[in-house]
Design goal:
The complex is a heterodimer of chains A (99) and B (398). Chain A has 99 residues and is α+β, with helices and mostly antiparallel strands. Chain A contains two helices and three strands, in the order ββααβ. The N and C termini of chain A lie far apart (50 Å). Helices cover 40% and strands 20% of the residues of chain B. The chains are: A alpha+beta (99), B alpha/beta (398). At the A-B interface, β1 of A face β9 and α9 of B.
Chain lengths: 99, 398
């Protein structure tokens, strides 16, 4: 918000998780990262760059803060390795058991 | 040194914008506003005005571009009329809601359908509730002076200002206009510093979706909700009454001309009857008042310069002593009455002022309003039952 002596004049925010409240419950689809396809080696971080809510960590293995992820799917769209899949529903599926 | 030029109101508007050192202009031509855009485009092309002139594909884009430029700190200008202004409607709300000191010249024209290119004030009146300040001018000198004042008002209040003047009646009519020197304007209008949003390495999301309830942001600061920001805009538009008044006084100190601030008066000192109007029609009403006085009806005129914010107290004060009030206006709210008559009647009612009150719609779509017609309607309103009526609707009685 633009600050004045009498308080904010207009709406303004910085890109940070939680700027628009707990937006995770807006989600109809949930992104799931395949950590084998995206391992950190020669990795682009395009998802981190594009995420409009800033909810993806830039450290490997990447994590998505689903408390604030609105499920827009931009990360899945931008990922050049197709390592992110949008799964229907709000809940994060349990991680697959490692063999 | 100032210089007297014989120019139209459109040329006066362009001269004023240039003297205000506007940095970004975006406009789409529409009759009768077109010469404003042509004049400014020529100034930029010749190198007389150091500004970005954006040729856009619509009025919606013109205002959207201006909003963007203003948001990052540029002094901006645009102009439109009639359906073009209506096409800007969404972005007019956006400019006011973003608290941007945009100045727009509205060259008043009737709205289609049916199509007309000629004057009335339905276009700007239809933008009444966008959160803009609206100022109405009576002659070409006032157009030039009011645009210069408008930047001071807008930048002080962070509210956009619409400077309205009648199409063709003023926009295409030559009058002597004293064009001030650049030095004088620079003294009155220092450069605008912007809202300070541009900083290296800082990311800002402007006008994100916000919910109605206040809430803490990611840093824990309590942010106002939608309704708080709307309330703030409303309070600030109301508070701009004082700014408009003082700006006109400060203008007079440097330029020697005052336009009355919020409202102006003509022969009101001993008046028993008041004619109230806006723009060039109010000036015509002064001729009608002279005639009514010859008939023995002591009449004066109140010209409403600021329509939004509505100068309720100033009007009540000006009309407290009269027996009758007759409004003439070039707009109508279909299904009720003219906008000015409705607002003024409410203001008088709130103040407990009881007068014989009539309101007339006149001069729509460029139909000429002669002083004699104002005299005829006003005489009827003063002597007979008060009413809402229309002036000079042909083939039927009014």
């Amino acid at each position: 918000m633009a600050e004045t002596t009498k308080g904010p004049l207009f709406a303004r925010s910085g890109p940070a998780p939680g700027e628009a409240g707990r937006t995770g419950d807006w989600r109809s689809h949930t992104p799931v990262i395949d950590h084998e396809k995206c391992s950190g080696k020669d990795t682009c971080l395009l998802c981190w760059l594009y995420c409009p809510d800033g909810v993806i960590t830039p450290d490997f293995p990447l994590e998505i803060d689903v408390e604030y992820c609105k499920g827009c799917g931009v990360c899945a769209e931008e990922c050049p390795r197709e390592a992110i899949t949008m799964i229907e529903g709000r809940k994060t599926p349990a991680p697959p058991k490692r063999s | 040194m100032s210089e007297v030029k014989i120019i139209t109101a459109n040329e006066a508007a362009a001269e004023a914008a240039a003297l205000c050192r506007v940095q970004v202009i975006a406009a789409y031509p529409i009759t009768p506003q077109t010469p404003v855009t042509e004049e400014l485009a020529a100034m930029v092309e010749r190198g007389d005005l150091e500004a970005e002139y954006l040729t856009v594909e619509s009025e919606h884009s013109a205002m959207a571009s201006i909003v963007g430029a203003s948001q990052v700190g540029a002094r901006v200008f645009t102009a439109s009329s009639a359906n073009g202004l209506l096409y800007m409607h969404e972005m007019l709300h956006w400019a006011a809601g973003s608290r941007l000191p945009v100045v727009l010249a509205c060259v008043n024209r009737g709205v289609g359908a049916p199509w007309t290119i000629l004057n009335d004030q339905q276009d700007s009146i239809s933008q009444r509730d966008t959160g803009w300040i609206q100022l109405y001018c009576r002659n070409n000198q006032e157009v030039l002076d009011t645009i210069i004042q408008a930047y001071r008002i807008a930048e002080q209040t962070l509210i956009p200002v619409m400077v309205c003047y009648d199409g063709f009646v003023l926009s295409h009519t030559n009058m002597p206009v004293e064009v001030p020197s650049q030095d004088e304007v620079d003294r009155f209008l220092p450069p605008w510093q912007g809202q300070g949003l541009l900083e290296s390495g800082r990311f800002v999301n402007l006008n994100p979706l916000i919910l109605s309830e206040p809430r803490p942001d990611a840093q824990g600061n309590l942010m106002p909700g939608y309704m708080e920001l709307r309330h703030r805009l409303h309070e600030d538009v109301l508070a701009s009454l004082a700014v408009i008044h003082h700006t006109d006084e400060e203008f007079q100190e440097i330029f020697g001309r005052s336009w009355g601030g919020l409202v102006w008066r003509y022969r009101m000192d001993d008046a028993e009857h008041a004619l109230v109007s806006m723009g060039s029609l109010a000036l015509e009403a002064t001729r009608a008042a002279d005639s009514l006085r010859v008939q023995g009806l002591r009449t004066g005129v109140i010209g409403v310069r600021a329509y939004r914010p509505f100068p309720a107290s100033a009007l009540v004060q000006a009309l407290a002593a009269v027996k009758t009030v007759t409004v003439f206006e070039k707009d109508v709210s279909y299904g009720y009455a003219g906008a000015l008559a409705t607002d003024l009647k409410a203001a008088l009612f709130d103040a407990g002022v009881s007068v014989k009150f009539s309101g007339f719609v006149a001069g729509l779509g460029g139909r000429d309003v002669a002083a004699g017609q104002i005299v005829q309607a006003a005489t009827d309103a003063i002597l007979n039952e008060p009413r809402y009526g229309w002036v000079d609707v042909r083939g039927s009685s009014t």
